[in-house]
Amino acid sequence: MNVINMIIGVSRELIDKPNISHLKLHKLAYITYGMSIYATGKQVMEPFLAWQYGPIHEPTWVKYSYLGSDLIKDHGCKCESVLVRKVWNHFGDWTDVQLSIFCRDYAWSMARLRGQKYVSDQDLVSTWRKHML
Description:
It is globular and about 40 Å long. A two-stranded antiparallel ribbon has the order 1-2. It has one domain. By secondary structure, the protein is mainly alpha-helical. Helix content is 56%, strand content 5%. α2 crosses α4 and α2 packs parallel to α5.
């Protein structure tokens, strides 16, 4: 869960208090995962489940779902990833709702339509190709 801990860590760099919900963490992680698959073809973490209301990272769900809408109190770790920083700099100010809408993308929609358990890496590449043009 190194990427997860880096996202939490970078979220606390400027504001040293809890400021990220587990929902926002899932969505920022999904964006990081998708951008990594698009740019390098490499998975930076486990694939995302295609749940009814959006993509979910199962280990993160197991660890933080008990919080509900409360903020994560963990401190995370020092962010050494350029990609995680780019995602945070671009999407960090987005609300949970804005991120949830953004993450209900082509890749997630196709997984739901096909009845797949996981969002396809190939569909994520297609999704991010459209975003990057």
